[in-house]
Design brief:
about 40% helix; single chain; six-stranded antiparallel beta sheet; three-stranded antiparallel beta sheet; alpha+beta; about 500 residues
């Protein structure tokens, strides 16, 4: 086998810079979108297939260490052999002028950490819906002899179709014939203490049951609203994984079915033999639970003393419709992701529509099934499709509960997404009404969304100078809803073309 290439000092210096605008093989770098422990992540276009991809570039400080380069290549090798809808797909691995990179699927949306931070504890049916997808991904990885080693909310990406995709096999450990492949002493400290298995804390050999423990700790967080253990430092948290039992979920969430609590605690058993034998066994149990805890029409059964009760007529449209969700997800498979609404070099009124886009159903907001909370209503809209006007309108119009409390952040984000739907439908006046209201709200987050939206609309109408002026009012670090950010970038590019 050829030795690993050793980068020169000049290459190391170059890779420490922003690679925006450069070309790596067939990938044209568009912009930097993130940074991880080992790599920086860029959005790029694969010129041969005309698709957007994520490029992970090994950070400069690791290039002089052949061990890190080897681990980086192992990440690509491990993940590249996995092909599953719930796993971020690796397309290719490359090296150019000492720059080591991996090209992988670009997932629009956010991650589970961001989702939990915004929403807090999830309803049990939403948690199980996501857990089934993660379990399916781990089952495929386990069959291939891969232990992820770093299951945590940040590594679970959520698409705008409600799909969960497991990302970052950078800490993956390959097994050959059941034996561990040692990757260096650094491997002992891999993982995240908040979700680390006892055997991982103790530096013992790992197998797929370590991922099940970490998955259980993450599921605990999904349902409790916080990780199972906390401490002043990483060591304090790690020691608790070794010696302490987490507070029973039922104490924190009396509304949860006891069977759901029992499943999560079994995943987190200290002894690996007391956990589920593998991810397939866990997936089977999740499917069985979902079937037990929902009525024939897919609606969750109410819980009395931890056990499901007979459904009442008033609950027929209260919360979760599994069959409906399944139809919605299937209808969107192959639909592709709408990339901003306008291709580079094409004017707004001449843009090419996505030929694979499934038109959303025409219906009024009152036809959308009412969910049990505004958070559940938001999740329903996210699953139903990013272009469903009625689904987002139902979130915006969701009434306060009996105590007058609502999750206003869900309502705010839904308003932005509703405006984006109008932009895509060329209903610019309707979008403008929402963006203007946001811009006048006085709340800095809403003001930023409204300002960005107005700049996009001005650009679409050919008001280049006004659009550029509006953009100057946006803070450089403004956090925008994902699609709005993409539309704003395209508006900037359109303004430049029209100004030339």
């Amino acid at each position: 086998m050829a030795p690993e290439p050793q980068p020169t000092a000049s290459v190391k210096s170059a890779t420490g810079l922003d690679l925006t605008g450069r070309t790596l093989g067939e990938f044209q770098i568009i912009r930097r979108i993130g940074k991880g422990g080992m790599a920086e992540v860029y959005l790029a276009e694969q010129t041969t297939l005309k698709r957007q991809v994520a490029i992970k570039v090994l950070r400069a400080e690791f290039l002089s260490d052949a061990t890190y380069v080897k681990r980086f290549r192992h990440e690509a090798t491990a993940a590249g052999g996995l092909n599953h809808p719930n796993i971020v797909q690796v397309y290719s691995i490359g090296e150019q002028e000492g720059i080591h990179f991996i090209a992988q699927e670009y997932v629009r949306g956010g991650n589970l950490k961001e989702f939990l931070k915004r929403k807090g504890p999830l309803e049990w049916n939403v948690a199980i819906f996501l857990m089934k997808q993660v379990a399916a991904a781990l089952q495929v990885a386990g069959t291939s002899g891969i232990v992820h080693r770093d299951i945590k909310p940040e590594n679970i990406l959520l698409t705008k179709k409600g799909e969960a995709k497991v990302a970052d096999f950078g800490l993956a450990q390959l097994t050959q014939g059941g034996e561990r492949v040692a990757m260096t002493q650094v491997g002992v400290t891999m993982g995240t203490p908040l979700y680390m298995s006892p055997e991982q804390v103790g530096g013992k050999p790992l197998d797929h049951r370590s991922d099940i423990y970490s998955f259980g700790a993450m599921a605990y967080h999904m349902l409790a609203g916080r990780p199972p253990f906390k401490g002043e430092n990483a060591l304090a948290v790690a020691v608790q994984h070794l010696n302490e039992k987490p507070e029973p979920l039922k104490n924190i969430r009396p509304d949860l079915p006891q069977a759901v609590c029992d499943l999560v605690h079994k995943m987190m058993a200290k002894q690996r033999e007391d956990r589920f034998a593998d991810a397939q066994a866990l997936l089977n149990e999740l499917k069985s639970l979902q079937k037990q805890l929902t009525s024939k029409d897919g609606t969750p059964l109410p819980v009395n003393n931890g056990k499901p009760a007979r459904p009442s007529r008033s609950l027929a449209t209260a919360s979760w419709a599994t069959r409906s969700l399944r139809r919605q997800v299937l209808a969107l498979i192959g639909a592709g992701v709408v990339v901003g609404g306008v291709a580079a070099g094409v004017g707004w009124t001449q843009r090419v529509r996505d030929p694979f886009l499934v038109p959303p159903p025409t219906r009024d907001a009152h036809e959308v099934p009412r969910q049990s909370s505004i958070s559940a209503q938001y999740f329903y809209a996210m699953l139903h499709g990013e272009n469903d006007e009625a689904a987002w309108r139902a979130v915006v119009d969701y009434p306060p509960n009996s105590q007058g409390e609502t999750n206003e952040m869900d309502r705010k984000i839904a308003a932005v997404r509703l405006a984006i739907v109008y932009v895509r439908q060329d209903r610019l006046a309707d979008a403008e009404a929402i963006f203007e209201k946001l811009a006048r709200s006085g709340d800095s987050w809403q003001v930023n969304q409204g300002t960005a939206g107005l700049a996009i609309l001005q650009s679409a109408r050919g008001q280049v100078g006004q659009s550029d002026l509006t953009m100057t009012r946006l803070p450089a670090n403004a956090e925008l809803v994902g699609d709005l950010k993409d539309l704003l970038i395209e508006a900037r590019e359109r303004n430049k073309r029209q100004a030339n």
